[in-house]
Design goal:
Layout lengths: L13 E4 L2 E4 L2 E2 H8 L3 E5 H19 L4 E5 L6 H9 L3 E4 L2 H9 L7 E3 L6 H10 L3 E4 L2 H13 L4 E8 L4 E2 L15 E2 L4 H10 L4 E7 L3 E2 L5 H21 L5 E6 L14 H19 L5 E5 L9 E14 L5 E7 L8 H5 L6 E2 L8 E7 L8 E9 L7 E5 L20 E5 L2 E6 L4 H6 L4
Parallel strand pairs: 4-22, 5-6, 5-15, 6-7, 7-8, 8-9, 9-11, 9-12, 10-13, 12-14, 14-15, 17-19
Antiparallel strand pairs: 1-2, 2-3, 4-16, 16-17, 16-21, 18-21, 19-20, 22-23
Helix pairs in contact: 2-9, 4-5, 5-6, 8-9
């Protein structure tokens, strides 16, 4: 029994024995037979271990008061919320649905944060009523809204201010979230950040907990985190000098990159945490301020590698290319409705034949979906066995974020279920949709 050649790509408990792929000791062929395809397969033990690893890495680097938040937007269900919370993580939410799901899972409000650039009254009221640990303020107008709602409910809301530091990073403009010309946060350079801090200080129903920064997503170069941390620590020192109040906490965000292709390497989170802690200590010494407490939001990197999508091959079609080569178009029974990222971002993914030993010479292939769109591509380019045929099973790794959470019913195709796989068994934690589910929403 062996592990795949690219272990960073695949869930931790994935193994191969004589060409037969297993997750948590369960054959993928058996899981396909029991739960159908496409299906999202979640490695429960791998998820728990990654959650513990991230918490331990930041706690060891920054100290025992450090908190790590799981990104609900990447993928959230009640079971996943429970598992990561049991592993010591808090939950970051960005909608009424995510907040409600975390609470329904039994996560205490104090262990939940609420983000969002356009929070509704319903979201804010539920956050106040459930005592969420922090509401991340994203605009000047939101300060007055949270103050008014907290006053109406007789509560004091703990808030952080999301700062746009001007440091940005990530694989695509739409996921680089700290440059000035974008929808998130309050500008450090433009003075809105300082104005927000002053206005919150004047509100009797708001408690200013600290500063928040998030510079992007799928970040593989950690240098940007150090620059953002320096900017926040400088703002914290300046605020203390003006007001005499030294803010207690900094959230340095996250967005750490994962492997999507065989040649990719994921971020070494322990090394990143140690380097970042060293930078923060040096900066605090320079500013003559004590270290604050820190929190982090790793993003996709906890759930992303812990899940794969299992497809069944349908049509296989050779298409001649202008350079004389042939590309094999391998159509599967899912597509852009279960993974929009290749169409939305041009994101690259890998695929492997997992239902039988691969004996034929590899050929240039493109894995495509069943939808009525030429851009319905699952994997742009991959080498697959030349005898790939209808009925084969393909696995696409690293789909824990944001496969199911961004899934749609395009072409009225029901969304796949999420199957939790562990050594003691496999079960659906999010039910596969049916045509009856779709029709139930249609009022005729």
């Amino acid at each position: 029994m062996t592990h795949p050649d690219q272990p960073a790509l695949w869930p931790a408990t994935l193994t191969i024995e004589e060409g037969r792929w297993q997750l948590g000791g369960h054959l993928l062929t058996d899981l396909a037979e029991e739960f159908g395809t496409p299906s999202y397969l979640l490695d429960v033990d791998g998820l728990r271990e990654r959650a513990r690893h991230y918490r331990n890495a930041f706690t060891e680097a920054f100290g025992p008061g450090t908190e790590v938040y799981y990104a609900g937007k990447a993928f959230l269900s009640m079971a996943v919320a429970r598992w990561v919370h049991e592993a010591g993580l808090r939950i970051d939410t960005a909608s009424l649905g995510e907040l409600t799901t975390a609470l329904a899972a039994g996560v205490a409000g104090a262990d939940i944060g609420l983000h969002g650039n356009n929070k509704s009254d319903a979201e804010l009221e539920l956050a106040l009523q459930s005592g969420v640990g922090r509401i991340v303020i994203d605009s000047l107008a939101e300060i007055d809204r949270v103050q008014e709602l907290a006053s109406r409910h007789g509560r004091t809301a703990g808030v952080m201010v999301r700062i746009t530091t001007g440091v940005h990073a990530g694989g695509h403009d739409f996921i680089a979230t700290a440059h000035e010309d974008q929808k998130f946060g309050l500008s450090l350079a433009g003075g809105a950040a300082a104005q927000a801090l002053e206005r919150i200080a004047a509100c009797d129903h708001l408690q200013l907990l600290g500063l928040h920064s998030h510079i992007g997503s799928q970040i593989l170069d950690p240098a940007g985190f150090a620059e953002a941390a320096k900017a926040l620590l400088q703002l914290r020192a300046e605020h203390a000098e003006r007001t005499g109040h030294l803010l207690a906490e900094l959230d340095l965000g996250g967005g750490y990159g994962i492997a999507y292709l065989p040649q990719d390497q994921e971020v070494d989170v322990a090394a990143l945490a140690a380097d970042l802690a060293r930078t923060c200590r040096q900066e605090c010494r320079r500013l003559a301020t004590p270290m604050p407490e820190f929190s982090f939001e790793p993003g996709r990197s906890i759930i992303g590698p812990s899940m794969l999508t299992l497809y069944r091959v349908g049509t296989v079609k050779p298409v001649p290319l202008e350079d004389g080569r042939t590309r094999w178009y391998v159509s599967v029974d899912g597509g852009m409705s279960d993974n929009i990222r290749p169409a939305l971002y041009g994101a690259d993914y890998h695929a492997a034949l997992v239902s039988r030993p691969a004996t034929a010479e590899p050929v240039l292939a493109r894995v495509v979906g069943k939808h009525c769109e030429s851009g319905d591509i699952v994997v742009h380019q991959v080498q697959l066995p030349g005898d790939i045929r209808p009925g084969d099973l393909l696995a696409v790794p690293a789909t824990g974020a944001y496969g199911r959470s961004m899934a749609s019913q395009y072409n009225l195709v029901p969304r796949p279920g999420v199957v939790a796989v562990a050594a003691d068994g496999a079960r659906e934690i999010v039910r596969r949709e049916t045509i009856e589910d779709i029709l139930a929403l249609d009022l005729g």
